[in-house]
Amino acid sequence: ANPVFFLCGPTGCGKSTLVQIAAKTMHLRVVSIGSELSGTSQDDLVHQLESLWEMDSISFSTRIPPLVLFDNFDTSFSSIERRHIISFLVKRYEEAKADPKKRLFPVVITC
């Protein structure tokens, strides 16, 4: 299964830059998810994440595999939203263990 990484550090220390450099080195495209999902209901948040994974919207019609970046996770999302996002990711990875056809992407969470 693809890994989930957490990068923590002070603002401006280069977390997002490190992700961009690592993605480029690994021939991945960064798809950043941030405050645009913040403030939605729990059901809407989970639905948007499911759509992102299932409906190829994350691919944007390109063959370059994505690396999903949840940037500024601690400030872009409320504690409830963070719990739902983490629960969603755990669920997806558990499902992928049982069904190899489930799509997985490397995920980086910065805070």
Q: What's a concise summary of this model?
A:
This protein is α/β, with parallel strands linked by helices and 111 residues long. 43% of the residues lie in helices and 16% in strands. Strands 1-4-3-2 form a 4-stranded parallel β-sheet, covered by helices on one side.
Alpha-carbon distance between the two ends: 23 Å
Rg over C-alpha atoms, rounded to the nearest angstrom:
14 Å
The quaternary organization reads as single chain
**Total number of helical segments?**
4
- State the low-pLDDT regions, or none: none
Largest sheet: 4 strands, parallel
Percentage beta strand? 15-25%
Strand segment count: 4
Write structural notes for this entry.
- The chain has helices at 15-25, 42-54, 73-76, 79-98; strands spanning 4-7, 29-33, 66-70, 107-110.
- With 111 residues, it is α/β, with parallel strands linked by helices.
- It has a four-stranded parallel β-sheet, covered by helices on one side.
- α2 (42-54) runs parallel beside α4.
- The longest helix is centred in the C-terminal third of the chain and has 20 residues, at 79-98.
- The two termini are 23 Å apart.
- The relative contact order is 0.26.
Topology readout:
Layout: E1 4-7, H1 15-25, E2 29-33, H2 42-54, E3 66-70, H3 73-76, H4 79-98, E4 107-110
Helix pairs in contact: 2-4
Which features does this protein show?
111 residues, alpha/beta, 4 helices, 4 strands, globular
